[in-house]
Amino acid sequence: MVRTLDGLDVRGKRVLLRADLNVPMHDGHISDLTRIERLSPTIRELSEKGARVIVLSHFDRPNGVRVPAMSLAPMAVALGKVLGRSVAFAEDTTGPAARRVIAALHDGEVCVLENTRFHAGEEANDPAFAAELAGLGDVFVGDAFSAAHRAHASTEGVAHRMPCYAGRLMQAELEALDSALGTPTRPLMAIVGGAKVSTKLELLGNLSGRVDVLVIGGAMANTFLAAQGHDVGRSLQEKPMHQTARDILAMAKSAGCDVLLPVDAVTATQFVANAPTMEVAIDGVPDNAMILDVGPATVALLVKRLQDMRTVVWNGPLGAFETPPFDRATTELARAVAIGTNAGWLRSVAGGGDTVGALRHAGVIEDFSYVSSAGGAFLEWMEGKTLPGVAVLEG
């Protein structure tokens, strides 16, 4: 269990808060405030308790050098608007500029330090840089689950040098994930989509031994189907992964996990928006066509099986949802999950960049029990890996 903010006295203390301000930018403007909004409850709580809150974050990949276009200055302004208060900004992560801004803070006030990745010591988890960061505060609060899979100075190194706790966002994320795979209410279904088996080998291996029903969709399902002898036409697949796919199916069978693959498909000869399509049984894919979505019979099968489930964890769309009409299956299944969640008999946890986009597209992102904004960290957690930025908060 991680140490939480419950009962922590922070009045008058300098609290280093590792957040994730790595928000989407378009033409120099923030296009999505979700990560900043999700962070705000932790900052408000610390501020109301009298802490001097010092926000640390990375943005993009400056590779250890100062890149003006990757400054956190716009994020400090946006955070101030979300909080409804003034937020100070330091033009460096450490050194005189950072110390000067921190020294000017009063109890309850907030500042943002410049991009941690402007320093090469951040991604190298350099002990000296971690010590510099630790010298800026009295307490460390980790609230960036989305960066917790990286052992960087501001996510892991600094926490070894001072008292450390999980922020409310980190706490909520971990509790949601535990309810999905750690101690779930069963039966448990996992829905996994995406393009390549090779990128989700560890995920599929871990899930096959932990869930009751494993749904495989997206282009990776084509590899499994081809490995079983089905002709998938010109569909995207990984021929070198056929034996691996068969091994995963055998592993799942021995673990008592029921794997559901598409029984029909939506095909087209061109991968373009609103292309002419044909719905075919999985054994009837034309030689010149591509599978771009699962078909209506598959959706009906999945919705039916869903009625017996009590927990669903979802990573990856069933089809090429960004290109209509190949969004239909993902949208229909997402809405069925949302109905079960709203009715109270289903707990639903989802995450991963494409997954968040697909659920938003389906209009159900607010209807799931929990949707993680983390990408790589969510995937590595689902793979069963230890996340350095989480492990350091345990005790």
Describe it for me?
With 395 residues, this protein is α/β, with parallel strands linked by helices. It folds into two domains: 14-168, Phosphoglycerate kinase, N-terminal domain (Rossmann fold, 3-Layer(aba) Sandwich); 184-382, 3-Layer(aba) Sandwich (Rossmann fold). Helix content is 36%, strand content 17%. It has 15 helices and 17 strands. The chain has helices at 34-48, 73-83, 95-103, 120-123, 127-134, 153-157, 168-182, 201-208, 220-227, 242-254, 296-306, 328-343, 353-362, 376-382, 388-391, and strands at residues 14-18, 25-26, 29-30, 52-56, 87-90, 110-113, 139-142, 164-166, 188-192, 213-216, 258-260, 264-268, 278-281, 290-294, 311-315, 347-351, 370-372. The chain has a six-stranded parallel β-sheet with strand order 5-6-4-1-7-8, with helices on both faces. Helix 8 (201-208) links the parallel strand 9 and strand 10. Helix 9 packs across helix 10 (242-254). The chain is elongated and about 70 Å long. It starts with 13 loop residues before the first strand and ends with a helix.
